[in-house]
Fold this protein.
Amino acid sequence: MIDPLASPLLADLYEYTMLQTYLEQNMEQTAVFEFFVRRLPENRNFLVAAGLDQALDFLQNMKYGEEELAWLSMHFPAHVIEYLENFRFTGDVHAMPEGTIFFRNEPILRVTAPLPQAQLVESRLMNLINFETLIASKAARSVLIAKDRLLVDFGLRRAHGAEAGMLAARASYLAGFSGTATVLAGALYAMPVFGTMAHSFVQAHESEIAAFEHFARSHPGSTLLIDTYDVEEAAKKVIALSRKGLSIRSVRIDSGDLARHAENVRKILDDAGLHEISIFASGSLDETRLEDLLDSPINGFGIGTSLVTSGDCPWLDCAYKLQEYAGRPCRKRSEGKATWPGRKQVFRNFDSNGKMNGDVLTLDSDNQEGEALIIPFMKEGKRLEERIPLQEIRQKTLENYETLPDNLKRLEFAPYSVEISDLLTELAESVDRRGITSL
Amino acid sequence: MIDPLASPLLADLYEYTMLQTYLEQNMEQTAVFEFFVRRLPENRNFLVAAGLDQALDFLQNMKYGEEELAWLSMHFPAHVIEYLENFRFTGDVHAMPEGTIFFRNEPILRVTAPLPQAQLVESRLMNLINFETLIASKAARSVLIAKDRLLVDFGLRRAHGAEAGMLAARASYLAGFSGTATVLAGALYAMPVFGTMAHSFVQAHESEIAAFEHFARSHPGSTLLIDTYDVEEAAKKVIALSRKGLSIRSVRIDSGDLARHAENVRKILDDAGLHEISIFASGSLDETRLEDLLDSPINGFGIGTSLVTSGDCPWLDCAYKLQEYAGRPCRKRSEGKATWPGRKQVFRNFDSNGKMNGDVLTLDSDNQEGEALIIPFMKEGKRLEERIPLQEIRQKTLENYETLPDNLKRLEFAPYSVEISDLLTELAESVDRRGITSL
């Protein structure tokens, strides 16, 4: 059986057509590919690196099963199949740790491997890292706006398939969300899972108060959904049940004017002395709506569609580009898509308050002031360290946010300086000169 | 091992908290849920139903393994685990066949099953059907604009994870694309796969012409990527190789002013008598760009990001709502989110030219003129028919496009009439009256 989540056939066909020619031309020397984002989306002051853990798993476990080889053998000659039969990824990976803040043109992943290997893994590496980085970067905006309020991923139903639902839960938690509603993410990533009730639960009962009472009896300390019929009337039923001794932790409002309803409900509950029952809101929320609701008495938010689809910008302008082959630096010069050649490093500088105040993009061989952000993660196809626990990555991400200048934390645009080193500029020019003569 | 693509834990936690209460309250009578889209996105004149095949697979194979039960038993009482140990979905499914054109409020899937079952499957059914319908509906726009030009899905790298890449390939093919670049989609869905070469292939060579020659020798009749350095210069190299007897089927341009480059290249190739070499374009394309390029000599297009993310609108405003429980019709009345109660049917009328000219949304028990679009697909948990081959669904979709009024085929907004039957309006009013008294 082919496992679609791990299969090396989860690749563009051209990876295999190129493989065939590389093998036939004995082009198996060392290639260096880097993954980076060409430019930030309009509404992102920074990006948050994510997806490395899944990328390393993919590389370390990559192999061809019988069914995969059978399909390929219908389309490729025997020598390609022979090469793949015992295929293992034997390359090195350098990367920014997950949760690192980064900017345009800064590589967050570098693969150093024989050319056929480094090329074959392109599609799936991009597929994983583009998506998790996209979601972590989107989630970061809500986290920085919501401050200490509870934020829960509610997006599974509108995520783009199963893996998107899972990885969105992981990436948003990594970026500072409190947890997810997706059970399987709780089971597989050991992250907190939150759940309430659906409107259908209320509707399946003859009356709303019966639904509330049944639910509160099954689940002491639970959250009741109060907007199926009339929010304020439902809040009064919560009081009645509370007086009967049922334990209710919070109420959820999922529609209408959330701020107005929350104020009404807060007053209704407070007047009854139920100050400890919190208010949770959901329904078409994103970081902009969150900002509008900060003055309301809402204690937590469920964010779904806009988070898991990165609704305002559902992709990154990312690339996985050949930067060096057989010791020779490479550069793509296509119009509007030119790239920086060579193996690169990013150095980050901080001011006396510990705030980031400028990066330098340079060659890996260079030595600049500041913190080097790209470090080794895999050597000859094996992880160098154990998997970092997700909670630990999340904690580190929150610490990284502390180093952000205040203007970058806001939703409005703010610039950040990424300097290109002289060394890198000179290399690009020399590659261009060589390139023109080689036409 | 848990299979994330089939696990019943791929669900929101509230499905399980509600399950517990349903079991404790003996609420296991028949529930009817329907999946529909509340309103069409701004740039869609119609939607194309897709994802049913995956939904039926999920329902028919749904079961709990040891690891899943182990996780659940840490969070739920023993009677819930006992219920799930031998769980099988035993309900009925009615739906519009994949490839059916539909509009707002028209259900495309109806689940009739004991309430706990119908509720448990909510998240994954929505996750599958929202996404495939989203992509099929996006793809349809390009298909109707491009007419007989080749359209290939190039989106895997920016799709939201593995399953999104796979299902986007399937949904776009179903909607009339010619095929995909994703190898695994070719292997698992038996659909056409297309591949060319990457810029890295050209860059890994000392010269562009060496790259072209090596590739054409490995792959007679292949496509050469000609924009790594200078498009027009590269086109001249294609001529030189052609004169050496190498077989080249087409050239791909991936950057810059595609129309201008294509015209230059067409002239260069035609002047050399190479009329049969076709031009393929890619790079940030969508249906709007396609429309601009219709007068250019481009013969085919690779469409990636905008297709597989449905870039202009990455989700549908869809819902899976309880419409009836224990024979009692239900209706959600939340502000801005009210729904039509009861089991429904859609009847479609056609004019004398075979063009669609109005739908009626009514109750399943009603009998209106026109074609009934919702038909049975699953009875007591078993598919009623064999899986329909994907090619057959695609053919049917193309036939459905023939019934579209011309104005709905264009990119500009055009309206379509969906009438609500008197019977349905009356039922909604009676549910509202009952609802108010039951508060």
About this structure: Chain A has two domains: 13-135+313-438, 147-308. Chain A has a mean pLDDT of 96. Chain A touches chain B through 109 residues (CB under 8 Å). The two ends of chain A are 47 Å apart (CA to CA).
